[in-house]
């Protein structure tokens, strides 16, 4: 049998191509053979100039315009066939020699070698030797006549191609003329034609007579063969028809089949461009007849032990190849399966080899990949039966081609898709995009045993062929795909095969097929510097607004934006900054696996990966960290990992393992390698779209003094120093600090100016920022019990995560040095640094309760004349405060003093000193000038010590907060609330009034500072808002609002007035008792008045409102018993002037004076007190007096003033 046969094979002229002369380099030999091999069809019209008709041509119907000669080149020649007389196309009809002149300087020797080579081809009718690249001396010696030597001078390829075409046309003309001679000779004298069947026949008389009768028919059949070779199908058909009739008459069945087969070839050549159903049916009918005739001849001659079944099988293959179309697949399959059954009758193993090769090729062309793979395996097994390396190489190549159908193909072969010579539509095999319905075909567990057999055969053939790389690849595929079906000893044997194959390979050899371990993508381990990358908006000063970084992925399900066609997320990496990827490795086999190196596979060329080595014990999985550094701007794709294991470098793709795990989840593969190793189920991690941006600045923060938590007590104020260092290669040119997280109000101040002054912060630069922090008040929600305290009492500490966070948005230059244009897309992004203020708040001083107290401290008269607190004469005059604990209003004298009492408890282990201070606003008088300066705005009080596990009370006077003027603004809300026209407006007014009241209370509380100090460095401030607000709720009006009228007394001596001192009694303040005045000594005590002397006094009435007040004033003097001393028969004080029912009008914000004189008869202690009844009170006065009746009088009483009278009775 012969390979690659078809119905047109009978028209092909076989030409042996032989290299002659010296050794020809392989590259040149391939070029010469390829140049010659392109000349397979020679038109008859092109050889007319070389053709010479010596006598009338026997080819009467030669198609000179449309016909052609077909050449089939046999590189290296072919042995003569015993069936050459039966089929003339099997003869070698011409010999072409190829000579490389630089290797063969002696052309005469080349001519002799060529002539000797041609003697082995007795059937050759033409001989040519093409000598390429002759030297100059050889060209000069070309005049010497050498038979059949044709020189091809050095020239360009096009010229040599043309020269070759000319020489082949000359060869074709020579062959045509030789065919004519042979046909003319055969017609005139006849010829003797024999086959192996005839050589086995007996020489009886009957057989001799039968042979003579058959000679003529056989000659006609042979002449028809030469007509086909000469390109004249009409003449060939005429001779075949004669031969068919003669063979039928003589019973020459074998030659009858050959003639009928030749007639089909002639028919097809005559209708080369036509293919209709009628022609197809005619061809099928004739060829089925040919098959039957060959089968009959085999049965008849079976006793002669010469098999003709090969011709029957060749005819079946020719018909199958002619009908090989998808719509005729059933008929083609029947022909091929019938031919496969006939292989048992073939004696020669080479014939069976060729038969299986042709059947496999036709099944592959038809698209039946599994059947093609089956017969290819039969071919491989025939090759493996031969004990030589060439056969093993052939077996390996055949099995490699069939591995695609068994889904055990090498990745290297799969990366180069094979295109069929015929357009037959989609194949039944694998290939193309993986669709869900093809997952089943990808993982067919019922094929596992067969797949293992195929891979084992590939491994055996590779070892015998001496191909270590192919052996390594087969062992790797076998171990990776079928480890569950292989025993531990078999797994170790495959590992040994991998190691032995690697020993025969050069170092650094790469293979497309991975072995172990199994690798899947676990996650992207992101450094915080990569998670907070923010797109910059060059159109905004606050460029970070409108961007939502908050992670490595620019797209989040909660972000606004249009729809996108891809589900992949986006990730940004920075040039020069290391990145990390977590991958999981699994070794499901029973031996220790040592991975020499593994690193990320990146084909974009802008990433440097760092290799690591891993050791995996049997049946274990491990998650490792792979890292690298981006080197250039652009996209980065990470399809998998590069692994150096078993001495060979392979690429493990993540998608392959994903498909494997998908098949395991659907029960389509044998097992899940990761689950076999005890690894849990991992959610499928998709590889995001990774882009690399130019280098960015990188701020690294740390707390000065250590990154541990700063322990603070509630209310403690402390500076935390944060150091920011630029660890990048680009300066920081823009920076902004903001707050985030919980308890943001605990941050008192941040040194923004310090950061801005340090810009631009160059690489390696450092700036330290103080952050003033006030520890927040612990609540039950954000605190927990301190379990570290061993004592019986419990202490609460703040929960983790309750500290505030500094958010620093920073960026480098707007353009990068490598960028030529400044577009929005080319603006390098910025960054966000999150700096948690790691603070642990401990429970500190606790408030037990707060209450409001009141007391009266009468004023006493003194000779001193202090400056006025409110300077009416000089608006610019600013008086200094007194250092006393309580401020006394000189226009009121003494008054009802209100104190805020706070009870504090110390549940901690330390001692606290509490200090109370009051901050006053800079008030202005009616001239717009400040009354108190900033330096004297704080009033401090003595410190209070509170030991641990003890309580203490702190008193806070509230008289500092009295407003200087009583106007209607505070009661405006109440007046609107009394409007009866609209209840809705009234309700809104009530709510507004309540809010105004709460605001006043909060303003009052904010001015009271309760600070504490503990130890050497701990100090803080207590939040008294929650404790004091309920205590002040009911009395805030009395605390804040002044009386409409205030009364004061002063002495008048020698025309000068002396104001009543506004201090409390000195005995209270200074501790000096009044007993300093002994027995009415002539030396007066400070603040004393002498008895039996007329004392001139003035009462001063000040209007603290913005409206005129008309009133009736009364002045009373009482003794220590509270009795009126100026009335009755027992009066002890004489008076001059008017003391009762004094009618006065006081202008707004001004004061009036009323003079009188007193004469004390008895020394002792007296009290002066002024009172008045306001006539026609305004709404403001009635609101202050808390009365709604317009007829009810408004009574104002001044505070008592103490008068100390000395002398004798």
From TrEMBL:
Coiled coil: none annotated. GO terms for cellular component: trans-Golgi network. Keywords: Golgi apparatus. Residues 873-1040 form the Trs120/TRAPPC9 third Ig-like domain. Residues 9-197, 206-269 form the Trs120/TRAPPC9 N-terminal domain. InterPro entries: Ig_TRAPPC9_Trs120_1st (IPR058565), Ig_TRAPPC9_Trs120_3rd (IPR058567), Ig_TRAPPC9_Trs120_4th (IPR058568), TPR_TRAPPC9_Trs120 (IPR058564), Trs120_TRAPPC9 (IPR013935), Trs120_TRAPPC9_N (IPR058563). Residues 547-647 form the Trs120/TRAPPC9 first Ig-like domain. It holds the Pfam family Ig_TRAPPC9-Trs120_1st. Residues 1075-1205 form the Trs120/TRAPPC9 fourth Ig-like domain. It is found in: Golgi apparatus. Residues 409-431 are annotated as: Disordered. Residues 331-500 form the Trs120/TRAPPC9 TPR region domain. PANTHER family: TRAFFICKING PROTEIN PARTICLE COMPLEX SUBUNIT 9 (PTHR21512:SF5). This is Trafficking protein particle complex II-specific subunit 120 homolog. It comes from Phoenix dactylifera.
